[in-house]
Amino acid sequence: MQASQATPPASFAGWLDDTNDITRAFLAAGQIPGLINIAGGLPDPQVYPVDALAEIAAQSVAEFPNETLGYGTIEGLPDLRRAVAARYSTDSLRLSPENVLITTSGMQALDLIGKVLLNEGDTMAGQFPTYLGALDSWRPRRPHFRNMNLQTNDLDFVAAMTGAKFAYTVPNFSNPTGRLVPEQTRRELVAAARQTGAWLVEDDPYGGLSYDGPIPPSALEISAEDEPDDGSPYSGPVIYLGTLSKMVAPGLRVGWAIAAPEMIAALTTAKQGSDLCTSGLTQRMTCKIFEAGLIESMNPVMLRLYGGRRDALLAAMDRHLTDFFDWQFPEGGMFVWASAKDERLNTDELFKFGLEELVCVTPSSVFDSQEEFRRGIRLNFTINDAEALEEAVIRLARATRRLLATLG
Amino acid sequence: MQASQATPPASFAGWLDDTNDITRAFLAAGQIPGLINIAGGLPDPQVYPVDALAEIAAQSVAEFPNETLGYGTIEGLPDLRRAVAARYSTDSLRLSPENVLITTSGMQALDLIGKVLLNEGDTMAGQFPTYLGALDSWRPRRPHFRNMNLQTNDLDFVAAMTGAKFAYTVPNFSNPTGRLVPEQTRRELVAAARQTGAWLVEDDPYGGLSYDGPIPPSALEISAEDEPDDGSPYSGPVIYLGTLSKMVAPGLRVGWAIAAPEMIAALTTAKQGSDLCTSGLTQRMTCKIFEAGLIESMNPVMLRLYGGRRDALLAAMDRHLTDFFDWQFPEGGMFVWASAKDERLNTDELFKFGLEELVCVTPSSVFDSQEEFRRGIRLNFTINDAEALEEAVIRLARATRRLLATLG
Questions:
Q1: Residue B115 contacts A where some CB pair is shorter than 8 Å
Q2: Model confidence at A259, in pLDDT bands (50, 70, 90)?
Q3: B111: domain range?
Q4: B92 touches A: beta carbon within 8 Å
């Protein structure tokens, strides 16, 4: 029979026209045989404590069947909210469970923040450069994006955040730059948040991946210094986001937001219509991961593995890329961020030349809400060994040379 | 130290003012000692195959560590997309994996549909009465809700759906009415969708809970009859939503959307910014649940348990409530829907009187997007045994008598 569609299907919402499809290009790239992919931000599967997690999964169901298999409260398992509050509390940062919302991944927390704060056309400020994956979560709200470059010395934080509903930052080893935002900058961000009324989102997936020593206090901790000392739970302007994804395993899709109770209540209302509650199974597993000290036992293994690979990548870049790129030394995280010396070099083009040479890197355009910055690339060092990283860099140098040749 | 907040925190998005807080009232009610709760829609925990699911959880991690613990593709595990496509395919309904998106619960599918179809102010039509939980998922998009009463004989389907981006329906044992939408009505819905261009959302959590015999073909199947017979995957106007929640366990938070590939692609873009991907662990567990035939082995147990309780609730209502309410016989699902004979009886008030008598029911206002319908109540029969149901009905009769007495 023939379709009897009298009217074309109703059109999609407007924001879908704005979205980029670089993720799809990456996924398609993953199918190319022989490709070395240094574009992603994936943990090396060899760090997963598979036996421990298999046992934890079974125990969670067997010991807590109603909780793991049934519906839970929207905010998250009481035990897990308590555990997160305890984990982040300090002498000056008083967190209670009402400061905590369990989310289905860090990405969901970003989506919920957009839902509760952004009306169409509202302004948000974002640390530049910023991973487009985060920006994607806010596109359905159709905000106005304002870039906020924390690396310049003359940034006026108050001006950057005035009129913005929130500022989005990744202070620890920002994706894509791998840069650690210094304590003084964090203090200025917190002060500007208090002064302007903008909420300060502190997204912290990479804080545990510090290869060279301790990191500054979080904006959350800094903001607690100014809180009233009356025993009440934290009520400041920071919305801190944590996740299991980089420290244990992304496949569990468990994250948490820490914020003032009024913000947690609003995020909870948004979560109710988003997925009702996070899986009781993955939440109970997270409790057991905390109790077993799995994060702490995995961390030295990851630091040794990833730190060594960082050094291997940087050494390979020293050998093959100094003619073409400048880069910063990343003290942590998963990435090296490099900028082309030749300003004519468009890294969207380099991405394509790279695929022909069987190497995949991330072009800088995906980290710019204006999609204008075209001279940078992001290189990942966590999932390939030193030998593969060396080969990837050689291929990238070849692709760069070929691209430059076309420019004459 | 004192807080130095110079400007109040930025305000929440406008839709948060519109939302109802009845869910919170229910959660608070859950803390009242001795309360019999017949308001929810929860499976009885005794039906969970705990040992089987504990083993499946451990096996999933042990056998598929990278898939369960790592990032997956946005659309879902290829094995699971294939399994869902195969499960719903018939001779005339040709589904390929590109017709399937795995979602983090059925609720997420509703959220994603709102994101991809609704600009602010767009119209959607919803089967009346409709569970407010579903409507909640669309509130952040600020649509115009249009009620569509499928129980009247004079509904003009084309008029109801003209200008709407989509129509939301629960044809099998609709929440809250427990009513089975007849085949002829389904055919009219599909025809109106084709004629008007509105997408037809067919939400089907309860289809497996049919106590008295077979159910009509789904709107998805009906719409496939009009599809071109050229071997291409389904491309019709129905967006079918399935979930594990009522048939196995809600705690896994796994659902699926089946739709035309263009719709699946749009939903995938929205899912990318919502949670990036559904947990690989709960997805692989779903594959194993399908393979082990757990749904099929659990179903007779659930039908016996819940069917018996439905009959017990109806018998108790016959004994105690005939003076006050009329109700329909539900052929399936989890609920009995009753309307007060006295039109002055406001069931929002009855909800409060009920709590005083230690019984919790759901008032009809939460099933009406206009929040105007005040004469109905929804009674659940799945989580309480016959004795508790009898006692709940006795308490409800007492509350009703007391409330009517106040009306003079």
A1: yes
A2: very high
A3: 71-294
A4: no
